[in-house]
Design goal:
about 300 residues, alpha/beta, TIM Barrel, 4-stranded parallel sheet, 3-stranded parallel sheet, 9 strands
Length: about 300
């Protein structure tokens, strides 16, 4: 099971072209790099239009492409696929056939529906589940658990598809399946993607959000310092991130000690109570956690009181 072959096709470039049109062609160098990075983090195929492929190429022979112009897409929700078969579609093989949609499977017996699809088409049909009901990740993983071998994604889920990074992370850390890919590159892909789209991705987005390893609550800080697996499902370094302790209105003495030690500040316990009160007041006033420099300034102020 751990070595089972899965095939991930990412269609981020196709969606970017459909959203931004000719504007996207002003960023050809960035798109070339995006192709390389999406392949490097674990996508087996990059889906692309024939026109854009000609403009971006040539690429390394290691990177494999699928031309969207050649795909046969069968779209719909669960009822479309209930009585579907190769005979009804008049196709001989699954090579260029893709199922798109099925985003309402979360409300039905998806195990039975996937079983019926497997009986008619086998496990190697392209499964491109949409995200109208926020279930594209869950249903994509259920297809894999049912024996499905092919999943279609986009980076960040752009266009309303299963997010590439979440599928890769879930396969690695949840399903424990061994697949090719360097997740340390996630932040680099995110930075480039934001440059191309000229938009900022939410900081709490799974696997790629800049703040997903920020910790403020005192009990959480204590738990993570003693045993990171208490609150972290995987090591931040595996996806190119670092844990960051945030000091704010929810912090306690223990968290403050850990932060001061992190900042190489030698403290006296008698300073910490007044310092914590000041931290909470300022954090509440600013409606955010405090920056390292602000913490240093508060420490100096409170130290001068004794």
């Amino acid at each position: 099971m751990n070595n089972r072959k899965l095939e991930i096709t990412d269609k981020t470039l196709v969606v970017l072209e459909s959203i931004y049109g000719e504007k996207i062609r002003k960023k050809i160098p960035q798109l070339r790099e995006l192709v390389k990075l999406i392949y490097a983090i674990g996508s087996d195929y990059i889906e692309i239009t024939e026109e854009l492929y000609e403009e971006l190429g040539p690429f390394s022979e290691d990177i494999k492409f699928k031309l969207s112009n050649n795909l046969i897409e069968i779209m719909g929700k669960h009822d479309v696929f209930e009585n579907i078969s190769k005979e009804s579609l008049d196709i001989n093989n699954n090579e260029n056939v893709r199922f798109v949609g099925l985003d309402d499977l979360i409300f039905y017996d998806y195990e039975e529906i996937f079983s019926d699809i497997k009986k008619s088409f086998g496990c190697d049909i392209d499964m491109c589940i949409k995200n109208e009901y926020g279930s594209s990740i869950a249903m994509s993983l259920e297809w894999i658990r049912a024996g499905g071998k092919k999943i279609v994604t986009t980076f960040t889920g752009i266009g309303g598809y299963a997010p590439l990074e979440s599928i890769l992370g879930s396969i690695e850390f949840l399903e424990k399946l061994e697949i090719r890919g360097d997740y340390v590159l996630f932040p680099e892909v995110l930075q480039l993607f934001e440059e191309i789209t000229e938009s900022e991705i939410k900081s709490n987005m799974p696997f790629i959000g800049k703040d997903i390893f920020n910790v403020e609550s005192g009990i959480h800080v204590n738990g993570i310092v003693k045993n990171p697996s208490t609150y972290e499902p995987y090591d931040p370094s595996k996806i190119g991130r670092k844990r960051k302790i945030i000091i704010g209105k929810h912090s306690g003495i223990s968290a403050l000690k850990i932060k001061l030690k992190e900042l190489d500040i030698e403290y006296k316990y008698c300073n910490l109570v007044s310092m914590l009160e000041e931290v909470r007041n300022i954090s509440t006033e600013k409606r955010r956690g405090l920056m390292d420099q602000e913490i240093k300034e508060i420490y100096m102020k409170c130290s001068n009181l004794y």
